[in-house]
Amino acid sequence: MGGKQDQDENYGKPAKYDPSFRGPIKNRSCTDIICFVLFFVFILGYIAVGLVAWVYGDPQQVLYPRNSTGAYCGVGQNKDKPYLLYFNIFSCVLTTNIIAVAKNGLECPTPQVCVSSCPVVPWTVEPEQLSQTVEKVFYAANRSFCLPGVSGDMEVLESLQLELCPSFLLPSTPALGRCFPWSNSTVPELTGISNTSISQGISGLLDGLNGRDISVKIFEDFAQSWYWILVALGVALVLSLLFILLLRLVAGPLVFVLIVGVLGVLAYGIYHCWKEYSVLRDQGASISQLGITTNLSAYGKVQETWLAALIVLAVLEGILLLMLIFLRQRIRIAISLLEEASKAVGQMMSTMFYPLVTFVLLLICIAYWAMTALYLATSGQPQYVFWAPNATLPGCEKALMNTSCDPLAQTPNTSCPGLMCVFQGYLSKGLVQRSLFNLQIYGVLGLFWTINWVLAFGQCVLAGAFASFYWAFHKPRDIPTFPLSAAFIRTLRYHTGSLAFGALILTLVQIARVILEYIDHKLRGAQNPMARCILCCFKCCLWCLEKFIKFLNRNAYIMIAIYGKNFCVSAKNAFMLLMRNIIRVVVLDKVTDLLLFFGKLLVVGGVGVLSFFFFTGRIQGLGKDFENPHLNYYWLPIMTSIMGAYVIASGFFSVFGMCVDTLFLCFLEDLERNDGSMDRPYYMSKSLLKILGKKNAAPQGDKKRKK
């Protein structure tokens, strides 16, 4: 008894009996109002940042290519000209990637013009056409590829010298809004350009920028297999529901099979290590002969390595066996709580689909941040400078190269051939541009805070619904009519500030982890062992801190949902309650985690194997209506099905895990509040009462519980 009293003093006093307590209290007030005001003001600022980004941003530069004058192709006056044509695409910088091309455009020192369609046949200017007019050679022949405003009366030779019209055309395909040559096209004879260089240029260009072909094939695969992917996701949904039903019916045998499986794996590991150790011992392979080496694989060929592994596995096997012997009663409690959680989910099936609400809210948060970041990154006024294709030609010495110009104004008369006003980039000066980094940091903070708040809100809502189930004395008669809706309104009305407080604490830790990851990325080339070691220690500590805060927040939200107190008080009460029952907490947590992991593995693995055999055509005899589609990349629908199955399984099992955690805290409170007498009967199920060896003296029709 003395030990129990000391424990009560260290971790608070147990909850006292309250005859008026019936589960989640109805008479509650708003909590953590200061945090609510702070969160509300922050959201207003977040909206203001989005408005500023929308006003000053120009995401069209990512969506649409620009011609030499800076005008967008496919927009405004070029609405009917969505593609960009490069006069000499071989002058483009090829060492780039698709994302950089989409954002910054190909850096090509050649005129660029918006066209309605890309060339489909090869063509080059013939010698006899040089003295003809642009009208006859280009416009009349349906080759509208000259720069805007070029007079039809101009000679072709002059237009080529000033680079107002292209000297050759290659069969091209639109990709990323730009005309890229075909790799298998017949290359015409071009003056000054060899066929070999053209072929190499086309091959190199398409090797680096083959995004359209891949995207088209991906689109075709999705178009061919989308309904089968939906079938796979439906299978994942059914498997998730079946596993939860299986937990309700045979949770005990499932846990037994899981434990036996873990023991069997460890036993096989011990046997394998002993076998390897015996062979190497007979061969006399010792670490004294090997010495110290950086080749880690060499340590697998010495007997001491396998002996150490054998000892570690044997110790783990012994610890697990001792835990099963001494903690068998608590494992039975965990199994009973899993069965009770399945009953609670069965009584409130709407909770299984609540993750859809969380998913939609998370999608809104991520989409808003992504659009805001994109608009901020593209803010600024466009800049134009003078440019010439060859600044070393005679007459270009005095040309104002790289100086600002107006694309709408007439190009000054100069002897420099091809001098023109071209788009260079976006102005990086101005109030918004100077604050761009700070605004992006504000956006990242907003992303983390809103996401963590949405997750916290979902946990608190589910906790309120499942607590209503546990504290109903006569189940299902005393369960509220709409427990999930009531918990949703109650949480949103009274506890937004408390959830924002917990989400902010977690956000700050996550931001610190992001900063450390960034620093670690920058220091990878430094090769400073001490700095890397210190940084690794900090990262490990922050990772542990984040896990602990998530665990504490989760239980604090449960206490908030039940008692309606502020975050700090709820976190303290939850922590004290868990510490007073630390052994039960550890056993339940591990048993639940293993079972849920086993369930996810079953669902995801089952869907993955089924998808693999179907989409690869290895399932025969299903009939014509069930034939696998012909795909370019059969792994694409398989991976989509697997990821979708993981999302569905995670959504279902997150609800189930929240139900187990809520019922567990309610169970611990029930043990402290009540004693099973007529005046203080337990709310727990009969199976839990049998495991604990306790009885409820109060009959099911006790009038006191009806009040």
UniProtKB/TrEMBL annotation:
Keyword Glycoprotein annotated? yes
Q: Which GO terms describe its biological process?
A: choline transport
Q: Which reaction does it catalyse?
A: choline(out) + n H(+)(in) = choline(in) + n H(+)(out); thiamine diphosphate(out) = thiamine diphosphate(in)
Main localisation, per the record?
membrane
Domain of life, source organism = Eukaryota
Intracellular or extracellular location(s) = Apical cell membrane; Cell membrane; Membrane
The protein's matches in Pfam families, at most eight in alphabetical order, are given as:
Choline_transpo
Question: Sorted alphabetically, which keywords does the UniProt record give?
Answer: Antiport, Cell membrane, Glycoprotein, Membrane, Transmembrane, Transmembrane helix, Transport
Q: Which GO terms describe its cellular component?
A: apical plasma membrane
Instruction: Provide the membrane topology annotation.
Output: Multi-pass membrane protein
Record's family? Belongs to the CTL (choline transporter-like) family.
Protein task: Choline transporter that plays a role in the choline-acetylcholine system and is required to the efferent innervation of hair cells in the olivocochlear bundle for the maintenance of physiological function of outer hair cells and the protection of hair cells from acoustic injury. Also described as a thiamine pyrophosphate transporter in colon, may mediate the absorption of microbiota-generated thiamine pyrophosphate and contribute to host thiamine (vitamin B1) homeostasis.
In Swiss-Prot or TrEMBL terms, this protein is called Choline transporter-like protein
Task: Name the source organism.
Answer: Vicugna pacos
> Which gene produces this protein?
SLC44A4
